[in-house]
Amino acid sequence: MRAVIQRVSESSVSIEGKVAGKIGNGYMILLGIEHEDSEEDIEWLVQKIHKLRVFSDDEGKMNLSIADVRGSFLVISQFTLHASTRKGNRPSYIKAARPVQAIPLYEKFKSRLREVSGLQVEAGEFGGDMKVSLINDGPVTIIMDTKLKE
User: Fold this and answer.
1) Residue 55 appears among annotated catalytic residues
2) Active site residue: 6, 55, 78, 146, which one?
3) Any catalytic annotation for residue 109?
4) Range list of H helices, 52-125
């Protein structure tokens, strides 16, 4: 499971011209699920994201978590995070999980994020043609991969 976490001052996702999810201060998370992922990957990732300290304290140091600032999450499914560009110019997505496996894990990720954090979790539509808008605050962008645990 791979996630790109961006600290935002605001973010939204629209589908067919209608806003499906919108947040203010918080994280916009692009989430890629591969066929080897499991609920263990969800637990590790949710705990890391929830405890991540990248919001500024009173001294301007990135020392606060999303819980400390009472932020929100916007989660967007993003199978292209597992693109392989090793050969040729057309990316291969062979590592990305098929919808039958990925959708339940995506839903579980959002559910666990909500349970663990107690914060608002907005989302796009799995597999939808989405338009994502954000103001990256900082900018701060963190990439996490459950296989690399970094």
Assistant:
1) no
2) 78
3) no
4) 99-117
